[in-house]
Amino acid sequence: QLQASGGGWVQPGGSLRLSCAASGFTFNSHAMGWFRQAPGKEREFVAGINWNGDTTLYDDPVKGRFSISRNNAENTVYLRMDTLKPEDTAVYYCTRYNSPYSSAYSGSVDYWGKGTQVTVSS
Fold it and tell me: Is beta strand 76-81 parallel, antiparallel or unpaired with respect to 109-112?
């Protein structure tokens, strides 16, 4: 199970931190990631992190603004989002990969958590 939290409303330029608590599987055997889906758009990759946290991957629009991390002792993955823009508005999904290594390919995701809404507006 993947339980995401931390979404909400924020003004442009603001920050949010999403958390995802995992349970029911061996957390440190899997890469983890975040995808998002904006209204009227397809679901897209945001960020991924390998099983031990030593390698991260970001989609170009969020590079330098978002940071993914994980705490294997607490079975939790985080997404720190800074300098938020209105175009970041979306439902954000915590994901588990079927591999220790992440990718931007949604086909590598074998479990999707319920999303958390992030709204960026003034």
Answer: unpaired
Contact 76, 21 (CB under 8 A): yes
Distance CA 102, CA 14 (A): 27
- pLDDT tens, 78-104? 999 999 999 999 999 999 999 999 999
Quick: pLDDT tens for 56-84: 999 999 999 999 999 999 999 999 999 99
H or E, element range at 19: strand 16-22
CA 104, CA 108: separation in Å to the nearest integer?
8
Cβ burial of 109 (10 Å; 0-12, 13-18, 19+) is: buried
Percent helix, percent strand, percent coil in the chain, to nearest 5: 10, 50, 45
